[in-house]
Write a structure and sequence with these properties.
By secondary structure, this protein is mainly β. Helices cover 14% and strands 42% of the residues. Strands 5, 6, 7, 8, 9, 10, 11, 12, 13 and 14 form a ten-stranded antiparallel β-sheet that branches. Strands 1-2 form a two-stranded antiparallel sheet. It has a two-stranded antiparallel sheet with strand order 3-4.
């Protein structure tokens, strides 16, 4: 008897370029019909692996890929978050090596010298020491596109030590407020302190700390509270 499978139609399929489907078809055989239908789907792009399959229609759409990216970007940004320094952390360190630094808090905000000297030749930071009068003068200027300010003080030191004998003057100058002169004078009734931590005449280095309150009757901001002040400057006689 002739084998009915010999009268069938041989079907071929391919998965990833390899022959992986070879099945004879016999009329009347329901299983063969099922396999034939499977072969047709194969030719349309279906890739079979056992009972599971994958079609191009199962690929994610461009919109879903974009949504996934938008959801992932904030997570990436979160991993690169920068640290914001506090006002105190923005101030220079308490050094005694002539680093030419100056800084303080003005009403709680970091204040650092910028630009040049509004009074003529010079730099944004100056210090001078006169012997034998032992007068020490320190001034710093903040000059940028937003503000033009200066902090200055003059001290008289003891002859045999770095102790402050007299405080001649201390002020905060806001040239945006007035060009007529000093705008905020030392409030002698408020706490204030000026300390010389290091003085080296041969190396011409002076370092110290300060705090005070300055008041004005001219400017809208009538009280300036200066705290956490520090300086480390090479001075000229």
């Amino acid at each position: 008897m002739k084998n009915k499978f010999l009268t069938g139609l041989m079907r071929w399929g391919s998965v990833e370029g390899k022959m992986s489907y070879f099945q004879p078809y016999a009329p009347g055989n329901h299983r063969d019909l099922k396999e034939l239908s499977r072969a047709k789907r194969l030719r349309k792009g279906t890739v079979w692996a056992g009972k599971s399959h994958f079609t191009p229609a199962m690929l994610p759409s461009a919109s879903s890929l974009m949504l996934t990216w938008l959801l992932a970007v904030p997570l990436l940004w979160g991993g690169c978050e920068t640290t914001t320094l506090t006002p105190e952390q923005q101030l220079p360190g308490l050094t005694t090596t002539g680093e030419n630094t100056f800084g303080c808090l003005v009403n709680g905000e970091a204040w650092l010298p910028e630009g040049g000297n509004p009074f003529g030749p010079g730099t944004k930071l100056r210090a001078s020491f006169h012997y034998p009068s032992n007068q020490l003068g320190v001034s710093a200027t903040k000059d940028n596109d937003i503000t033009l300010e200066s902090i200055s003080f003059e001290l008289v030191l003891e002859e045999e030590s770095n102790e402050v004998k007299n405080l001649n003057t201390a002020f905060f100058l806001d040239l945006d407020c007035s060009f007529l002169g000093v705008t905020h004078q030392l409030d002698t009734l408020s706490p204030h302190g000026f300390q010389v931590e290091f003085l080296e005449l041969e190396e011409k280095i002076v370092s110290g700390t300060f705090y005070f309150t300055a008041i004005s009757s001219e400017c809208q901001e009538d009280t300036i509270v200066i705290s956490e002040g520090r300086y480390d400057i090479k001075f000229a006689n």
